[in-house]
Structures are given as C-alpha cells and as structure tokens.
Amino acid sequence: MPEKPIIRLIDVEKVYRTEDEVILIFNGLSLDIYPNDFLVITGSTGSGKTTLMNIIAGLDRPSSGMVLVNGVDITKLSEDKLSRLRAKLMGISLQSQSLLPNLTVYENVELPLIARGVPPRKRAEMVEQVLDVIGLLGKGYRRIERLSFGERQCVSIARALVTDPPILVLDEPTQHLDPMTTEFIISLLRGLHMRKGKTLIVTTRTRKLADVATKVLQLRKRSFRYPASEDRAASPRLSE
Ligand SMILES: Nc1ncnc2c1ncn2[C@@H]1O[C@H](COP(=O)(O)OP(=O)(O)O)[C@@H](O)[C@H]1O
Ligand SMILES: [Mg+2]
C-alpha cells in the first residue's frame, strides 16, 4: 500500500497586511511530504523559506489553505492542541526561535524534555547523548551568550533532535557553519533520514544540502505588493 503523506499543504497562501499595503509571499502552494522524504526547500533571501517553515511547524498560520499534519488540519487547532501535536511529532530549529542566552547549552537542550515531562535522570541521558552526537559534549556547561553563531546553530539543532521526533523542521541549519561543520551536519542529517527513518524538512541557500535531498522545492522571490485599499480580486494569481 502506498504511504500516506505525513504533511500536506493544500492551496496555501500567505499575505502580510500592513496599514497601507498587502504583501503576497506565496499562494496556490500545494505540497505532499511523505514519511521517507528528505525535503530541501531552497530559494534566495526573502523568498519565503522561513515563512513556509513557520507554517509547516504551526507557529504561524497561512492566510488561507490547509496544512494537514497526520491528517489533522493544524490551521484549525487551538494553540494548546497544536503545541502538543508539535511536541509529539516535530523537532524544530528556526531562525526566529532563539536559544535562551542566559542558560547553558545543557539547559537549552533540556527544555523540550522538561516540557514533555521526561524525568531528570532520563533527561540527563538524552541530553548527553545528543550533545555527544553533535560534538558539543564538552561544552554543555557553557552559556549560550559565550558561544559563536556556529556553535549556537549546533545547539539549536541538538535541541531539535533531543526528543527523537519523527519529523525534523530545520530552517537554514548550516547558515553559520564553516565548510567542515557543514559537511558534518549534512552527513548527520543524512544518517537520520536513511538509518533512523526521520522525515526531514530543511531550508538552505546552498547546493550541498539540496544534493542529498530526495525532493527539492525551489521558492522564487515573488512577493507582490499592492495598496491595502485595492480590491483583492483584482490582484493577479501567482503560481509555480
Ligand atoms: N511579519 C512580516 N510582515 C511583513 N512582511 C514580512 C513579515 N515577515 C516576513 N515578511 C516578508 O516576507 C518575505 C519572506 O520572508 P522569509 O520567509 O523570512 O524569507 P526567507 O526565509 O526565504 O529569507 C520577505 O520579503 C519578508 O520581508
Ligand atoms: Mg529565512
């Protein structure tokens, strides 16, 4: 039997409205993501990658359209149900979702486990394991504000991985990394996909990650602005 999509976007549109203008980021966007997908979303700065990741993770709602996660339309869920669903299924590392600068690496990575009610001893085991995998074991005691951007990025990835979720949503995870660390993270993500069967949804502006993807979605910068006073029906419909 063919597998069912784990995430479906159906005719998704996102517009930002300010007092005097409406900015259309994308519309007519439909996408099926299957459990064995390693989906890479590329596109230049401003093409809507972060916006799309926020919508997929249910941290932002589309202006119209449906986002089904495991068959549930998350655009209609209460914040409460949404955060429970997210905690169960997704590990998220987003550009906008920053680490807590005053806490240590260890404490930041531990947060999703506390939120899930994992007991302290088990938490310690899980945090240490993920820090080891990502090469940060010796830096657990360091405060985030004392780390480089690259190190912070690795902590953010570790925080996404620590709960061992089936879906990973990573927004430009190699943005601040040097070439060697980038290679390391790419092979780590590949391993998570191939050996652990994770669904990966990753944005990037570099080819390297797109080369290992099973699917690539290219977003084009096409944000279209029009005065807020103008009739929406008169605006052209953009499509891929
Ligand atoms: N809250 C907002 N209000 C208005 N415009 C926004 C808002 N957030 C993002 N945008 C615009 O949406 C476009 C896409 O942004 P983003 O999703 O961050 O792109 P990317 O991650 O590909 O660089 C940009 O032109 C950005 O300025
Ligand atoms: Mg972005």
Bin the helical content. 25-40%
CATH topology: Rossmann fold
Distance between the termini: 30 Å
Shape: globular
Number of strands: 10
* Spatial strand order of the main sheet: 5-4-1-2-10
Number of domains: 1
Within CATH, the superfamily carries the name P-loop containing nucleotide triphosphate hydrolases
Q: Spans of 5+ residues with little confidence (pLDDT < 50)?
A: none
What would the average pLDDT be, to the nearest integer? Answer: 91
What is the element string, with H for helices and E for strands? EEEHEEHEHHHEHEHEE
Largest sheet: 5 strands, antiparallel
Strand content: 15-25%
Number of helices: 7
Which ligands are bound?
adenosine-5'-diphosphate, magnesium ion
CATH architecture: 3-Layer(aba) Sandwich
Based on helices, strands and strand pairing, what is the structural class? Answer: alpha/beta
CATH top-level class: Alpha Beta
